[in-house]
């Protein structure tokens, strides 16, 4: 249909996108909408093709089902192809590149099963079909083919001669899997992504498959050939509707009569479940009014989802698709069931798919961290921020990590700075912190404590046996600003004129929903210290939620705060 518009533009319509192609300027200004009946322009779709039958199979709306019938995602596409000699395939592919199939992850060149013959056998046959008359064409002898196959061995026996190989060696013992293992434990092979096969091909030879294997198809041999898959719009078109480059190639070879090396054939491209991307599968499985979840956090072998309330009826289905499309890296899929409100800042997780082990190993900046997601806190999205913070340290710094967790900052900093004092209230986190410290052989540079944050800071700065602390990290965004009052009067027992006293630099993290988050967080720091901190470096870490920023404030502890009167009684 057409309608008046301010700019003459042609739109190619598809179910997912609109492609705009501006015309040169003209006095007429119309809008032309062209509906494309050939499907998506950029590749295959689950909404096109057909299943095992002649009628497309609809994808059912599954709700609480965790198992997926992978056969319903098998799609078959009818294509046209050029059968050409293998030696000329590369050159013809370059010449016909604009007219060949251009689908993601699918090659536009396919082999013909049983067409490739060993070079030693091909010498016995004429490579030039013109040397034979039309009544007498070269034909590969099945006996020659069999004799060549039985001469090929490896350490397991016969290579291609499968029938004799089964006789010559004992049967392999099949591995018995536990009944609890499901289809998700199977490895996906590259050959299971798609396959190309000829729709109809004359086979005048006798059936030798039981003797020499199914790979030999007999018939006249024209040499090894390949299939150049043409674009999907040429699937069911007549020869005169093909592009000029293809017609010229066929007409030129047609003059050779029966000895033509090029042939236009019909193929069937079958695409299996393993080809489709995660978002494509979820778009087909979930109702149309539900937003498809596209991202998740990866923590070792665990995929951490944050599903919305509308996704919860389909959580098992979503988890199974995520697990299938991210193997073998992902082995467990979990979802956070509640907000983080407990004292140890651990997440309440529900295992949706895969194994139920949440003990994993995370590699961050070439450092391995062992942890248990059920008992400790970890956030992989802060890896860049941790790297930025550690880059500001020097080799002479002494770092105090008040909320260390399993040690992502403490262990990374220990490889660079002079010494690290690490503390956490969670005993499980302290256990993994000590384990990770020994794992990286840093137990001499890191001292681990299991104390409350205020007690830890007060005891550390009042001790005479520790090294002078130059950097303090307080990475607890929800409550870290409330712990700043402990620094009021931290050096009260020392002389204010003591120049040897080093005032540490504090890095404190926090959240803000204000319109000006930097100003809001700065005011909260001033209120906690009861002093105006003039020079504060503010850094926006990440947008946690719409309108909610996570920030990092870095400032040197003011002398008036360090030598002032404490606000609370130090334990």
UniProtKB/TrEMBL annotation:
<dbReference type="Pfam" id="PF25133">
    <property type="entry name" value="TYW2_N_2"/>
</dbReference>
<keyword id="KW-0819">tRNA processing</keyword>
<dbReference type="GO" id="GO:0005634">
    <property type="term" value="C:nucleus"/>
</dbReference>
<dbReference type="Pfam" id="PF02475">
    <property type="entry name" value="TRM5-TYW2_MTfase"/>
</dbReference>
<feature type="binding site">
    <location>
        <begin position="452"/>
        <end position="453"/>
    </location>
    <ligand>
        <name>S-adenosyl-L-methionine</name>
    </ligand>
</feature>
<dbReference type="InterPro" id="IPR029063">
    <property type="entry name" value="SAM-dependent_MTases_sf"/>
</dbReference>
<keyword id="KW-0539">Nucleus</keyword>
<dbReference type="GO" id="GO:0002939">
    <property type="term" value="P:tRNA N1-guanine methylation"/>
</dbReference>
<dbReference type="InterPro" id="IPR056744">
    <property type="entry name" value="TRM5/TYW2-like_N"/>
</dbReference>
<comment type="similarity">
    <text>Belongs to the class I-like SAM-binding methyltransferase superfamily. TRM5/TYW2 family.</text>
</comment>
<dbReference type="InterPro" id="IPR056743">
    <property type="entry name" value="TRM5-TYW2-like_MTfase"/>
</dbReference>
<comment type="function">
    <text>Specifically methylates the N1 position of guanosine-37 in various cytoplasmic and mitochondrial tRNAs. Methylation is not dependent on the nature of the nucleoside 5' of the target nucleoside. This is the first step in the biosynthesis of wybutosine (yW), a modified base adjacent to the anticodon of tRNAs and required for accurate decoding.</text>
</comment>
<keyword id="KW-0808">Transferase</keyword>
<dbReference type="InterPro" id="IPR025792">
    <property type="entry name" value="tRNA_Gua_MeTrfase_euk"/>
</dbReference>
<keyword id="KW-0949">S-adenosyl-L-methionine</keyword>
<dbReference type="GO" id="GO:0070901">
    <property type="term" value="P:mitochondrial tRNA methylation"/>
</dbReference>
<dbReference type="InterPro" id="IPR030382">
    <property type="entry name" value="MeTrfase_TRM5/TYW2"/>
</dbReference>
<comment type="subunit">
    <text>Monomer.</text>
</comment>
<protein>
    <recommendedName>
        <fullName>tRNA (guanine(37)-N1)-methyltransferase</fullName>
        <ecNumber>2.1.1.228</ecNumber>
    </recommendedName>
</protein>
<comment type="similarity">
    <text>Belongs to the TRM5 / TYW2 family.</text>
</comment>
<feature type="binding site">
    <location>
        <position position="386"/>
    </location>
    <ligand>
        <name>S-adenosyl-L-methionine</name>
    </ligand>
</feature>
<feature type="domain" description="SAM-dependent methyltransferase TRM5/TYW2-type">
    <location>
        <begin position="296"/>
        <end position="559"/>
    </location>
</feature>
<dbReference type="GO" id="GO:0052906">
    <property type="term" value="F:tRNA (guanine(37)-N1)-methyltransferase activity"/>
</dbReference>
<feature type="binding site">
    <location>
        <position position="475"/>
    </location>
    <ligand>
        <name>S-adenosyl-L-methionine</name>
    </ligand>
</feature>
<keyword id="KW-0489">Methyltransferase</keyword>
<feature type="binding site">
    <location>
        <begin position="424"/>
        <end position="425"/>
    </location>
    <ligand>
        <name>S-adenosyl-L-methionine</name>
    </ligand>
</feature>
<dbReference type="GO" id="GO:0005759">
    <property type="term" value="C:mitochondrial matrix"/>
</dbReference>
<keyword id="KW-0496">Mitochondrion</keyword>
<keyword id="KW-0963">Cytoplasm</keyword>
């Amino acid at each position: 249909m057409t309608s008046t518009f301010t700019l003459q533009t042609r739109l190619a319509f598809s179910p997912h996108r609109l492609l705009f192609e501006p015309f040169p300027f003209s006095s007429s200004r119309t809008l032309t909408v062209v509906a494309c009946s050939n499907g998506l322009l950029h590749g295959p779709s689950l909404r096109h093709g057909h299943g095992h039958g002649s009628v497309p199979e609809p994808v059912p709306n599954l709700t609480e089902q965790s198992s997926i019938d992978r056969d319903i995602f098998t799609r078959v596409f009818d294509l046209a192809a050029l059968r050409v000699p293998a030696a000329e395939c590369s050159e013809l592919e370059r010449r016909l590149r604009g007219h060949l199939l251009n689908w993601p992850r699918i090659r536009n060149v396919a082999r013909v099963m049983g067409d490739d013959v060993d070079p030693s056998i091909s010498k016995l046959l004429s490579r030039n079909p013109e040397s034979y008359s039309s009544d007498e064409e070269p034909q590969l002898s099945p006996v020659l083919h069999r004799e060549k196959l039985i001469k090929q061995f490896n350490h397991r026996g016969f290579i291609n001669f499968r029938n004799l190989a089964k006789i010559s060696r004992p049967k392999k013992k099949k591995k018995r899997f536990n009944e609890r293992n499901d289809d998700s434990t199977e490895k996906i092979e590259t050959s299971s992504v798609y396959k190309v096969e000829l729709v109809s091909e004359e086979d005048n030879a006798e059936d030798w498959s039981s003797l020499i294997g199914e790979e030999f198809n007999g018939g006249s041999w024209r040499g090894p050939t390949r299939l150049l898959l043409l674009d999907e719009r040429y699937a069911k078109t007549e020869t005169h509707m093909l592009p000029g480059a293809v017609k010229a190639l066929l007409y030129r070879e047609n003059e050779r009569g029966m000895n033509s090396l090029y042939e236009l054939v019909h193929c069937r491209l079958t695409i299996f479940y393993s080809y489709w991307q995660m978002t494509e599968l979820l778009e087909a499985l979930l109702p149309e009014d539900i937003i498809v979840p596209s991202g998740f956090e990866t923590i070792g072998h665990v995929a951490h989802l944050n599903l919305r309330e509308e996704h919860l009826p389909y959580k098992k289905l979503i988890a199974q698709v995520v697990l299938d499309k991210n193997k073998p890296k992902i082995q467990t899929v979990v979802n956070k069931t509640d907000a983080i409100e407990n004292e140890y800042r651990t997440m309440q997780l529900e295992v949706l798919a895969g194994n139920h082990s949440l003990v994993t190993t995370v590699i961050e900046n070439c450092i391995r961290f062992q942890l248990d997601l059920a008992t400790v806190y970890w956030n992989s999205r802060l890896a860049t921020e941790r790297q930025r913070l550690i880059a500001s340290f020097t080799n002479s710094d002494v770092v105090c990590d008040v909320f260390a967790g399993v040690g992502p900052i403490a262990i990374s900093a220990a490889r660079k700075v002079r010494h690290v004092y690490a503390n956490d209230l969670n005993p499980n986190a302290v256990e993994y912190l000590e384990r990770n410290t020994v794992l990286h052989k840093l137990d001499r540079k890191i001292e681990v404590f299991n104390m409350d944050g205020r007690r830890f800071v007060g005891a550390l700065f009042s001790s005479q046996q520790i090294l002078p602390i130059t950097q303090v990290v307080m990475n607890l965004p929800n409550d870290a600003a409330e712990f700043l009052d402990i620094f009021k009067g931290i050096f009260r027992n020392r002389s204010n004129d003591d120049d040897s006293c080093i005032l540490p630099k504090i890095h404190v993290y926090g959240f803000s929903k204000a319109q000006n988050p930097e100003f809001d967080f700065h005011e909260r720091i001033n209120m906690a210290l009861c002093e105006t901190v003039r020079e504060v470096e503010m850094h926006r870490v990440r947008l946690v939620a719409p309108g909610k920023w996570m920030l990092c404030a870095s400032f040197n502890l003011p002398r008036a705060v360090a030598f002032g009167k404490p606000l609370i009684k130090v334990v």
